[in-house]
């Protein structure tokens, strides 16, 4: 395993009064099991200093929420990764949504919410549920499956690109592209370099798909282009707006569904509760996003001198928000490390919070709910038959492999 320090960083000493920690949240070691590191940061203080990178970090629920809420000072337009766009040119043209501040962000978001709204999601519900039933019946009949490839990846990769209106050919580029995008929020380490190498080819296909006129007429992609054109966006901006959904919409939902399967297999009592009341499918997915946040971290940049929890943060500081640590902060949650589908998981920051809160969260919830609802009705048992394998990523948490045995529900159980 490589332990080389990231090329761009040097060792630093914490500013006076700020606890300094020498952990590397982008190392294989940390990413494999981040939870002790999360606790160490939360317990060290409201704000900590990560010596390896010379950045501030927040890991408690209160301070993560504060930074998310204060978008005027903790800006996104300087990048939400470790690199400051005011100092380094971004590797791709910035996202009009993720890497933007008001008023530009507000306008871009308004364009999208004209399409991505509760009415649209309701219109998808029936077909998404039917598709999940078909997939789950098939994998349950097979018995032994890889929960990641055969279910967590398969379902989103079937429903999402069809709905957007993407070409049938080339869809294998979606996951490597997302993996690259999320890896590049981190430092230039091995994960970053490898993802860039694997993802560059994928980026060509993604940008072809994003071109106005390319997505199938009537689909989400064409609608995004039409709404963006209507407010005067250039063709390049129309493409870049759609690019956000192909960047953020696939790996995240795949990891959410994979982690839900993992949690249910590891906690059979929780799957029994879900089977007893399949309407808990939605709450089960919400609890998964709290317990195993697919997006673990994002940065903000302090655009002026400010404070967090009484600690001075100078202009230009990068602040790393540990969304996943906030979601397990014992100051906020009871038994935070336990996966409990009956709890009120609402209020977690797995989808962020505030003006940048995940735009696709309704669609993500729909996908998660459909798969879990199908499992609750059509499967009697979910058992692990081998070790779950983690997929390392500088930003994402999810599985590479999850060997499972599924036992179909009997006709009697299906009622
Ligand atoms: C975007 C984008 C990319 C990655 C993540 C994300 C979680 C958005 O291109 O807008 O939000």
UniProtKB/TrEMBL annotation:
Keywords: Heme, Iron, Metal-binding, Monooxygenase, Oxidoreductase
Gene3D superfamilies: Cytochrome P450
InterPro entries: Cyt_P450 (IPR001128), Cyt_P450_B (IPR002397), Cyt_P450_CS (IPR017972), Cyt_P450_sf (IPR036396)
Keyword Electron transport: no
SUPFAM superfamilies: Cytochrome P450
Top-rank taxon: Bacteria
Family: Belongs to the cytochrome P450 family.
Protein name: Cytochrome P450
Source organism of the structure: Paeniglutamicibacter kerguelensis
